[in-house]
Every structure is written in structure tokens, then in C-alpha cells.
Amino acid sequence: MDPLALLQELVAIPSVNPMGRDVSGPEYFEARLTEYLAGFFEKLGVRYEKVEVLPDRHNIIARFDRPGATSTILLDAHQDTVPVEGMTIPPFQPEIRDGRLYGRGASDVKGGMAAMLAAFARLVKEPPSHAANVIMSCSCDEESTATGATALARMWTDDAANGSFIPTPPSLAIVAEPTDLDIVVAHRGAVRWKIRTTGRACHSSRPQDGVNAIYKMSYVLQALERFAEEVPRMFPEHPLCGPATLSVGRIEGGISVNTVPDECLIEIDRRCIPGEDCSQIVPQVTAFLRERLDIEFEMLPPWLVGATLSDHNNGAWADRLLAHVTDVVGPRKKVGVPYGTNASRIAVTGIPAVVFGPGSIAQAHTKDEWISIDELRHGAEIYYRFCADEREMPNG
Ligand SMILES: [Zn+2]
Fold first, then answer.
1. For the chain, counts of helices (H) and of strands (E)
2. Residue 389 Cα to ligand 1 middle (Å)
3. How far is the CA of 384 from the centre of ligand 1 (A)?
4. Could you give the 3-state DSSP secondary structure of residue 371?
5. CB count in 10 Å sphere of residue 256
6. Per-residue model confidence as pLDDT tens digits over 316-355
7. 174 C-alpha vs ligand 1 centroid, how far in Å?
8. pLDDT in tens, 50-108
9. Can you give the pTM of this predicted structure?
10. Environment class of residue 192 by beta-carbon count within 10 Å: exposed (0-12), middle (13-18) or buried (19+)?
């Protein structure tokens, strides 16, 4: 099965994640892509299951099982893409030009998905005698809150006893993201939340009658700026992921210039590094601010609490994968990256996980997203070779 033909079909089916915005339209959400994938697995004649994660938003998961196999490799690629506003190419009409395929999701991560699906189909059609079991997961809602991967991991933890489609933990998870065929063994995790200050509105001609929420927020911001300077020094820098960071990225408040604002909100992005507990981030910032400020502010519940990917248990697997990468495309390396992925949601269950795929993160989310067709084909070949022979896999 040609991964390029597959990728053209995947790009032509919009599956835009609205990323929390209140929008509607045929290009939003994963439903049509999920239907396509159901047809794909149906035609292939494999067992598959659709799992509803959010209303009408599904993970779709298929299995290739070889009797006697001792390792099970989970391949995961997310179905959703980021929005298409501002794109300078037609997002859903895949175009081949100069050895590249252009379109939304080409790199992030329909390219990786096409490569995985092609490898999976090849294993199913001509099962190699030493193949590992392979679970192909196409998860929903990665770009916004990663609920798909969280639901996926529940299948062998919470649901394992109840006839789950994945009753036992996989030996290894390979999560597709555009890594230029390097192997990501560690990454940071993000925590995002809002802080609110409130005041009392009044006409701006008599500001003394009101309480200005924006003035209040200015104290919070100054304290946060000091905190942001300290964050990288609070934890030892991770050798592959760099330092922990904090950034304030948005502010909103006030309704007009002639009204004293009664509310101000800011949005904070805090990146944690392996070894830090992402769930402790908001309490930590709260404590810092309360110690220094005597004004009222409110921490809203975070809408994203990511997890880091640590390289403590995936090294031997990454080396095995790297050997196949080297055979196909020459030397590549194990790396850490600053962005989060589904791998951390899977790794929290104790399973080794790595991130690996064709395409470049530099092209992900861009206005003219593309993927190198050579790299796409190499990715499919490497996924296949890795899964086709379990004899030298580390004992998961
Ligand atoms: Zn992605």
C-alpha cells in the first residue's frame, strides 16, 4: 500500500480541531476521518473498535495479532489537525510539487498516520513469521486537550478487566509526530490556566468610585515576570529538554475606554521538564503570588495539565528503533523536544513510549504545510521493519 496515495486521501478529509473555539462547519472535528478509517480497517479485515471520547468524537483502534508473538507495539497517530485560517495553499486539496505533498496535516500528523497505516496493512496482508502484535490507534483531540490519548491509556488500566480491546499493556508505544525521523525520547509538558482579577465598574470620568481590575492585574503580572525569571533555576535543566519555563501569553479586560474595568484575565503557559510534577504547578504559582501580593486574584482551574515524557525507561527500545532508522536513511539521533505529545499520556501508565515520524515540526501548523515524499516512504518502511521482527526487541 502506497503511503502517498493514503496521505492524499487523509488530507482531503478535513478533521480540524477547533481548539476550544465555538465554531461549526463541515471541516471541524474528526467524524468523517474516523468513518474513512473504519472503512480502511473493514476492508483490511482486521478487528477494530471505535471508542467515543467526546460527543461524536472517537478514537479508532485496530489490532494485528500474530499467534505466539511476545511483544505488542502500539502505534498512535492523532486524527485532528490545527485550524486553517491564514493558510496560503488550499488546505484540503493535497498537491504534489517538488517532491513534497502540500496540505493541512501533511506533516502534523496525517503523514505519520499514512506511514503507520501503510506499515500496518503490509503486516496484515503478508504476516512476517516473527512479527510483533501491533495495535494501530488513531486518536482524537490531540491538538487541544489530549483527551483521546488519555482515553486510550485507560483501556489497559481502568477498563482492562471489562473485556477491553486492549486488555494488557503494550510493550512499547510509538507516537507519530513529525520528528524528521529522529527519535524523541523525552519532552516537556505544558500546564495552561487563567488568572482573574475583579473590580467594580463605573464611568471613567469618576474612577475613584470604582475598582480597576486591570490595575490589580498589573501587580500579578509584575510578580509573575519575576517568577518566570526564577523558574529555569528552580529545577536542574534537563539535558535533552532544556529548562522549565513560564510565559504569560494573553490578556483581556475592560469593555470600553470610558469604563473602569471590573474584570481582567491573563493566560499562562508553564512548561515542565521530566522530573517535575505538572499537577503541582498551579499550587506552586499560587503560593508564590500569595506570599508577595496582598491583592485578591483568582486561579481558574487549568484547562490543560500536560505530562512530561521521561527517558528513564525507553532507551533500549529507542536504540532498537534507531538501528532500523539507520538501515533505511542513515544516522539519526535520540533527542528531547520542547513540545508535548500523546506519548506522555501513555507513558504515565508505565509503558515505554517514544515519538517518531516523518515530516518536520518546522512545517507543522504552518500556512503552507508540507511533507517530503521520500521521508514519508522511509517512515512507512521503518515502522514496518521495526514491527516485522520482534526477535531483537528489548523485553518489555
Ligand atoms: Zn501532532
1. 9, 16
2. 27
3. 21
4. strand
5. 7
6. 999 999 999 999 999 999 999 988 899 999 999 999 999 9
7. 13
8. 999 999 999 999 999 999 999 999 999 999 999 999 999 999 999 999 999 999 999 99
9. 0.88
10. middle
